[in-house]
Amino acid sequence: MLIVQPIVILNKKYLLHRTIGEISYIIFPLLILSFVPQMIKISNSSDSKILFFPLADCILLIVFYSLAIYNRKTASKHMRYMIASSLVFLGPTVGRIGPNLLEWSGILTQSVMYGIIYHTNHPIVNDDLKPVKSNSYIRLESIRSRMIENPLIGDENIKTILRSRDESEYKRIDFSEKN
């Protein structure tokens, strides 16, 4: 699903994307249940402290998938959370490559994995920081060029509107007076 879904979106098959997403409501809980036998096996072993790794992966997977579903109407956040949930599957892969080929410790391997996941989701935490060439600045420049026609609308009015995000703390702006 994680491979097919981006391809479906790329081909603008939105209904198919939604249908596959709805199927994941059944498949995802089954995937989470598949973690349980391994966790039981580990908890019954002499080295039960490594139970942390599948448990942490399970928790991250549940959190990122849930956040992706919760934010399904905000495409950028939905996409980032789905990418993060797919990165959780890299944990076991990195967990085998790190210690066996690179001779890393288990904790270092897990730390590298969490670092990758954090880095992928960092823009979600800081979504108000946009590069100067971003869409917001391009739209603002377009608005500025049109303001020549109506001198009553000033830069600060437009910036306030663009920043407001429909929050109640921003009052309606009266364009009858110039800034």
Please characterize this protein's 3D structure:
The chain is mainly α. It has two domains: 34-125, no CATH class; 130-179, no CATH class. Helices cover 69% and strands 0% of the residues. The protein has helices at 4-10, 14-33, 35-43, 52-70, 75-88, 90-101, 106-125, 135-146, 155-164. It is elongated. The N and C termini lie far apart (52 Å). Mean pLDDT is 76; it is low at 170-175.
Keywords:
mainly alpha, 2 domains, 179 residues, elongated, single chain
Write the layout of secondary structure elements.
Blueprint: H1 4-10, H2 14-33, H3 35-43, H4 52-70, H5 75-88, H6 90-101, H7 106-125, H8 135-146, H9 155-164
Helix pairs in contact: 1-2, 4-5, 5-7, 6-7, 8-9
